[in-house]
Amino acid sequence: MTPNTSVPKYFFSLDAIRGFAALIVVLCHWQFFFYKDYTVMTSTIAEMPLPLYSWLSMFYNHAFFAVDLFFLLSGFIFFWFYADKISSRETSFNNFICYRVTRLYPVHFITLVALVFLQAMMIKVNGRPFIIQNNDAWHFVLNLLMIHSWGFESHPMFNGFNGPSWSVSVEFLLYLLFFIVSFKRLQHKKVWLIGFVIAGAVLQHFYSMIGQGIYSFFLGGLVFHLYKWLITRKNTGRITMIVTGIAVFIWLIVLTEYAFSYIRNASMVVFQHLLPGKSVAFDTALFDLSRNTFFRTFVSPATVLSLAMLETTKGSLKIKWLQVLGNASYAIYLIHFPLMVLFALVTSVLGIDRHVFQSPFMLLLFNAILIPVSIATHYYFELPVQKLFRGRLLKKTQPVTVVLKDL
After folding, report:
1. Is residue 193 within 8 Å of 221, Cβ to Cβ?
2. pLDDT of residue 276
3. Could you please report the per-residue DSSP string of 314-379?
4. Is residue 407 in some structural domain?
5. How many domains does the chain contain in total?
6. CB neighbour class for 245 (10 Å; exposed up to 12, middle 13-18, buried from 19)
7. Does residue 162 lie in a domain region?
8. Cα–Cα dist 96/105, whole Å
9. Tens of pLDDT along 3-44?
10. Around Cβ 111, how many Cβ atoms within 10 Å?
11. DSSP category for residue 88
């Protein structure tokens, strides 16, 4: 690795953690196999016979932070790569939206179509769909237009077909909002960006999906501005070590708290004194909210900032398989749900008891299929389709460096 104080052309480390985040989401969704009739959650995650739960409980219970990380990474990368180009009119709306839609749409479309058939078969075999309801014509149209998490759906938690694609719909909305912000030359105005973060937090109370996306995306933009400021300081290498040390320290607190709950226990005592008369459930909910806000606002940003700083000052650690995993992360994220429906169908048709999903070997088999299929989808479907449509939709294609495979 060679020292470098200029912004890299590609953040390998950020791409790699996106791949791991996608696999964490897959692990969390394994709980779906233990829902009553593949529909209703009747027990807590801790009570489910999930494979390797004692080792992987942190990921099973807190995988929603991984989706936050997707939005955070997108914000960081977009403010780095696109904001000034849009502001200076170097990148037009047509160019921007063409590249973004052709990035999101191909895999979204094929998984949507696949689930039309898979869910129909699931209803025929088991009498009900797998987890996601509202697989009707209206929700198909919303999914087809990628606006199925914009408030038009019957219920935010049941937006039809490929449930995890709610974040794709929100991401599409964020693209439009980001373009407006950059076109209006607000991308460097920190007050505006902080305002969007606050607005996202407030909106999340009323519509969690869009609020979550706005909060984390624009927080990612602020993290980029902090990164850009830090790499222009003197003693950048020393600053990098300090930032990395802070990130490691925060992670040590997170991991030890998860193992021993010492902060939770102390917080319960404090809450009882400060908020007498409140129930234990209220105090627990308050702690969980504080913990989640801390993780989203400090732990994930500190992690992204430290990795970006390390890659800038120490050089890129180019590990091929990590790059391949990162490139395939979007496909992993969208393909895993239809693959789960297929697994549920096969076991139902063959009369195999659902206890089979308790086995670590079944989890291993699932990922052994998912990961190669997703990699092949990325290289032999996503990229060729993107090239085809970008060439046809853009009269004069402007060369755009592929940076980070943004969700």
Report:
1. yes
2. 86
3. H-----HHHHHHHHTHHHHHHHHHHHHHHHHHHHHHTT--GGGGGSHHHHHHHHHHHHHHHHHHII
4. no
5. 1
6. exposed
7. yes
8. 14
9. 446 677 778 888 889 999 999 999 999 999 999 989 888 888
10. 25
11. T
pTM for the complete prediction?
A: 0.92
For the stretch 219-228, pLDDT in tens is 999 999 999 9
Residue 41 tokens, joined: 């959650």
Q: Give the integer Cα–Cα distance in Å for 23 and 112.
A: 20
Assess if residue 284 is contained within a domain: yes
Residues facing 40 on adjacent strands: 36
Tokens of 340: 């789960």
Spatial CA neighbour of 312 closest among 250, 257, 370, 237:
237
What is the per-residue pLDDT across 124-160, written as a single tens digit (0 to 9) for each? 999 999 998 889 999 999 999 999 999 887 776 667 8
| Averaged pLDDT, 100-122 | 96
Residue type, 87: S
Is 219 a domain residue?
yes
Domain range holding 135? 12-393
**282-311 residues labelled b (16+ CB within 10 A) or e (exposed):** ebeeebeeebeeebbbebbbbbbbbbbbbb
In the predicted model, is pLDDT for residue 399 greater than 60?
Answer: no
> Do 216 and 75 touch, CB atoms closer than 8 A?
yes
* Percentage of the chain lying above the pLDDT 90 cut: 73
Query: What's the number of CA atoms in the CB half-sphere (13 Å) around residue 358?
Result: 7
Average confidence (pLDDT) over 382-397: 85
Burial class of 349 by CB neighbour count within 10 A (0 to 12, 13 to 18, 19+): exposed
- d(CA 306, CA 169) in angstroms, rounded, equals 29
Mean pLDDT, the chain, as a whole number? 90
The pLDDT value given to residue 40: 87
Measuring CA to CA, how many Å separate 111 from each of 32, 44, 83, 118?
A: 18, 29, 31, 10
Q: How far apart are CA 107 and CA 276, in angstroms?
A: 52
Per the structure block, which two tokens stand in for 45?
């995650």
